Amino acid sequence: xxxxxxxxxxxxxxxxxxxxxxxxxxxxxxxxxxxxxxxxxxxxxxxxxxxxxxxxxxxxxxxxxxxxxxxxxxxxxxxxxxxxxxxxxxxxxxxxx
Length: 97
Description:
Elements: H1 9-16, H2 19-33, H3 38-63, H4 68-88
Helix pairs in contact: 1-4, 2-4, 3-4
C-alpha cells in the first residue's frame, strides 16, 4: 500500500512566497460566491487548499522529485488557472436567466 503524507500547505506557500497570492485567490472566490455562512466559507477555502494540494502531488508524481522552485512554479500556474477561470465566469455565477 502506498503511504500518504499530508502536505503542510501553509508552510509550503510561505516558503515559496505564494501565501499572499493564495489568500488573495481565496478572497476572490469568496467574493464571487456571495454571502456565505462561516461554515460554508471555511469549506470553500479548505476545498481550494485540497485542490492545490492534489495539483502539487500530481505534478510531483509526474516529475518524481520537486525543488522549492518547482513547487513555486506549479503553485503559480495553479493560481493563474484559477484566476483565469474567474475571468471566464459571467457575473452572477453564470446565471443568465
